[in-house]
Amino acid sequence: MNYSKNRGCRLAVGEKFLGKWHHNPYKIIRKLGEGANGTVYLAESKNGQVALKVGFDQMSITSEVNVLKHFSKVQSQKLGPSLFDVDDLMYENRTYPFYAMEYLKGPGLLEFMQTRGIEWLGLLVVQLLGDLDRLHRSGWVFGDLKPDNMIVVGPPARIRLLDVGGVTLVGRSIKEFTEFYDRGYWGLGTRKAEPSYDLFAVAMIMLNCVYPKRFEKQGDKPFLLLKQQIERKQVLAPFKQVLLKALQGKYEKASVMKEELLKALSSGLEYEKVKKPPRQATKKRTSKRKEAKKSHTNDNKEKKQSYFVEIFLLSSFLLLLYVLYLFGQMM
User: Fold this and answer.
1) Within the chain, where are the H helices?
2) DSSP 228
3) Which sign does the torsion angle of CA 276, 278, 279, 282 carry?
4) I need a surface site. Which of 52, 127, 130, 310 has the fewest CB within 10 A?
């Protein structure tokens, strides 16, 4: 079968086609994105809207399909999208492999942080580390881990990953990577597929969330640069040690990084409580102040009333003496 590597498969908005083997109908709504292994479209199917990935060759598509099938078997909570259909399409007398998967709706990670607040960072990363731990224990490394491949769904808010093209078996060489999140680019490790490779990327994603425009590698001491960038942002202060350990490849398991991140998150919340008392405590203090003020006011009123009573009694006594004096004169 002629699976062309020609990248001329450009489906137009509104274009319709049937899968070659399963004959499922699809209608292109719009293009969602393009990667090294193919183009992803939003399409209408008999089951509703789906994300349709049209590949350039059979091998890469088969690899991604196998990963999605494996995900569905090993994960209690889905890390990637569900797989619906795998087929071929004919386009300009050439055959292209494609698969239809769940269309995930929601903002990208960076957009979510900008609209909902950076305080969500620790919570979402803790959830992500739990998913990565399950992935690693099943023998895979995600590889090309970056915000562009992440979407936040919910409620409750949680990260789902969109592109499994970089997923690699543990022990092999990473298939796809993006420089900013790649430890090889920063000179802080190899591109061997192992859990610590993904965990380095997690640390860089956290940095990217507070530096949305990212920053460039400078000088011959990249680790020092990354450390300085962490220290410049107060919001990263509770996570500093966790980030530094991840950047140096000191975590062999995502579960360990998750546990330490939870502790750091808890410590950060305790610090905020000390720094800024809860509203309830503030209300109690305000209430006490009001009661004290009210009591003080009542005391003043009572003192004033007592003063007037004393004046009245004294005046009455003097008046009585004066009357007795006059009565004595008359006698």
Assistant:
1) 58-74, 109-116, 121-137, 195-210, 222-231, 240-247, 254-275, 279-330
2) H
3) negative
4) 310
Closest C-alpha to 200, from 132, 121, 265: 132
| Euclidean distance between CA atoms 51 and 44, whole angstroms | 9
Q: In the structure encoding, which two tokens stand for residue 19, read together?
A: 């899968």
pLDDT score for 56: 85
Pick from 177, 171, 178, 165: which is nearest to 62 by CA?
165
Is 88 assigned a catalytic role?
no
| CATH homologous superfamily of 109-275 | Transferase(Phosphotransferase) domain 1 (1.10.510.10)
Kindly report the CATH number that applies to the domain delimited by 16-102: 3.30.200.20
User: In the block, which residue shows the tokens 């690899």?
Assistant: 63
- pLDDT for 219: 87
Distance CA 110, CA 284 (A): 38
Catalytic residue, chosen from 85, 144, 182, 198, is 144
Of 58-62, 99-103, 268-272, highest mean pLDDT: 99-103
The domain segmentation of the chain, as residue ranges, is 16-102, 109-275
